[in-house]
Amino acid sequence: MELIDLNRHEGIGANSHLIRLGDFNILVDSGLDPKMIGKDALPEHAAIAERSIDLIVLTHCHLDHLGSMPLVAARNPHAPIITSLPNTYLAPRMLRNSINVMKRQREELGNTDLPLFLHRDIALFDHQLYGQRFGRSEIHTKAKDQIEIILHPAGHVIGAAAVEFIYKHRRIVFSGDVLFEAQRTLPGAQLPGGKIDTLILETTRGAKARAPEITRVTEVERLINAISKILERGGSCLIPTFALGRMQEIFKIIYEARNFGQLPRCPVFAAGLGMDLCNYFDKIRKKTQLIDFDLKMLDRMRVKPLEINLRPGRDLPQKGIYLLSSGMMVQHTPSYKAAACLLPHPKNGLCFVGYNDPDTPGGQLLADPKAAHFYFDSLEYRAPMRASIQQFDLSGHANREELADYAVQSEARAVVLTHGDTAARHWFSEELSERMPGSRILDPNPGEVYQV
Ligand SMILES: [Zn+2]
Ligand SMILES: [Zn+2]
């Protein structure tokens, strides 16, 4: 098998791999690097410009996997984009939102590359999408060659798939982004068992061990207690959340905690892309039963939109729980604007529920939660930091030990590392080299062709 990692920059980046198996050129994912803007955010598409792609596979709808797929699809109009059924609904919606963000960036930054594609490109992309059920094998042929593809549930986020290719009795598995623990809305991963030939493995959490006593269940409990304390002292609680998956999970956590009397009843406010995605989740539940999320929860909690006229420094007019995207408090988003209102008032509290990149406002706030002030750049407002700030580990990614165990039991002849920063990959490289002495552990250089 020939393999090229097309992610140009270090870290998680713009995920995309090309593999060649016999006559088949297959592209797995084509994302955008969340830390880059414009063409810098694209995968190294030049490395595959000469090749015609036969099959495209989309593991899930986070933009670091999906974000540049309309460009690849347009260049390879005959290649089906194979993905799980939920993703056939979600991918066009996520891409449409991405166009809006890119248009705003064009205005702000004067970057004329943006938007990288248009709504009509998404219509064509949509046409190429091919939904495949989890666990079902489908065979694709090219001349006399054939390949079998099976998608497996990877937890992580609704629709997330690990991809298994079977070619001449060799099993090649892309883990995609994986979470083994169940979320409130979604069961955990069920990756393919048995002996694998080549495993392409995510390494997101490789740099850090998680204490064994900390689990998703204990973190959810700690979160409920924290929200409850903030409300009891008469404050508002802001939970910045990722729109796809995490917001819906937190809705369910709050809903159930209220029903069990663990949280006092109070107004719940929500805003951002995540609210629209709730409608999609409800539809996906009805059509596929792959998620446990019912829109009726929002009616029963009487979820309200965020007030539009927010003034930095002036406390939010109504006390309650504010569930707002984005999860990393990126500028111009509802969570960023609401934080500028909440932060100066000591009764309020901020609860972060996911990973925050150090370069984002959320990451900067968490880097020094005891600082005296925080500067809200785009609002030109220096806020005194008086509200409480806490973080809860509701990550969508598996612990490094769980992933390493999976790799070891697969007895893979080769393990290819991906989706992690240098320290994370380094841990996996050391750990797997020791535990799998007969296997090749590969941390590929971007754009280089490897025979695996
Ligand atoms: Zn992801
Ligand atoms: Zn990812």
Summarize the structure in short.
This protein folds into two domains: 2-208 and 396-451, Ribonuclease Z/Hydroxyacylglutathione hydrolase-like (Metallo-beta-lactamase, Chain A, 4-Layer Sandwich); 216-391, Rossmann fold. Helix content is 31%, strand content 22%.
Textual characterization of the structure:
- Helix content is 31%, strand content 22%.
- It is α/β, with parallel strands linked by helices.
- A seven-stranded mixed β-sheet has the order 6-5-4-3-2-1-22.
- The protein starts with a strand and ends with a strand.
- One zinc ion is lined by residues 12, 15, 62, 64-65, 177, 419.
Pick out its properties:
alpha/beta; Metallo-beta-lactamase, Chain A; Rossmann fold; seven-stranded mixed β-sheet; globular; binds zinc ion
What is this structure's SSE topology?
Blueprint: E1 2-5, E2 17-21, E3 24-28, E4 55-57, H1 63-66, H2 69-75, E5 81-84, H3 85-109, H4 119-128, E6 129-132, E7 137-142, E8 145-153, E9 161-167, E10 170-174, E11 198-202, H5 216-232, E12 237-240, H6 246-259, E13 268-271, H7 273-288, H8 296-300, E14 304-305, E15 321-324, H9 334-342, E16 349-352, H10 361-367, E17 373-376, E18 381-384, E19 388-391, H11 400-410, E20 414-418, H12 422-435, E21 440-442, E22 449-451
Parallel strand pairs: 3-4, 4-5, 5-6, 10-11, 11-20, 12-15, 12-16, 13-14, 13-15, 16-19, 20-21
Antiparallel strand pairs: 1-2, 1-22, 2-3, 7-8, 8-9, 9-10, 17-18
Helix pairs in contact: 2-4, 3-4, 3-7, 11-12
The site of one zinc ion (ZN) has 5 residues, from loops.
